[in-house]
Structures are given as structure tokens and as C-alpha cells.
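Exercise 3.2. Students should predict the tertiary structure of the chain below and write it as C-alpha cells, then compare their answer with the key that follows.

Predict this chain's 3D structure.
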Amino acid sequence: MDGNPDDIQLISQLDRTKTDAWEELRAVAKGMTAKDRDVKWTGGGLQTDGTYSLSYPAYSERVSKTIGLLYTVGAVTPLYSWMDRGLPDYSSDSDLSVADAIRAATFVVRSERFCDGTIADAVQKGLLDAILDTLIKWYDKE
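Answer key:
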């Protein structure tokens, strides 16, 4: 596989049998507040021992929980070569397809390991909400 699976392959990675995780994902998405979306950066600068530390985002419990649940339901998948393919086009005034929601979830979550703040950017731009909305609508239809 070349890291560019088709839509059907990506969607087939979603695990409908994880009912509890889907319901928890719905509850977390529904309860997301402005405070959850206001990501603060912490750390950074000269430390008392003379070393320097990089700052990093401190995500709310709700955002952190969301990331774990995206893995659990299969929305973060090794099938999508996020480093090669990047983030799918997204505009806050357009809907994501289910496959693009999976691509976006994979890109955002995996990118965070290499670039602190990728999740923060997705939260602040509404991309995380769009991912959750699309996936939950898919789950409800299926």
C-alpha cells in the first residue's frame, strides 16, 4: 500500500463495536466548552538549574480524552501516510467527508508528537469539532 488508501479502506477502520467509546466521544464532543478550546502553553524558558525548556500546550481533560477516544474508535489509523499526504483541505464553512475526517484526525494526532501545538491549532480553528461532528454523524447513520 502506498499510504494513500481509498475512502472505503479508511472508513472500514472505524470500529462500530466500540459502542462505549463512541458514546463517550459523543458526550465529550457535546460538552466541549470555550475553556476547553482555550489552550494554554506552559513551561519554557530558563529553568532554575540553568537549562532551557521548551513550552508545550496544556490540553484540557476533555481534549486529551478526545484524542484517546479517536484512537479507540479507529479514527487514527496507520493506513494513512500523514507525513507524505498531509492534512486534507479544510475550511470552517465546509463539511468534512468521513474519510477526510479520518485523514485529518490521523494527521492532527500523529503530528502532535513531532510538532507541539498541532492539536491546539485544530481545536482553535474548529477542525477538531468538525472531525468529531462528522464521525459521530457517521456512527449515528450506520
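Discussion points: The CA atoms of residues 123 and 129 lie 7 Å apart. The beta strands are 40-46, 52-58.
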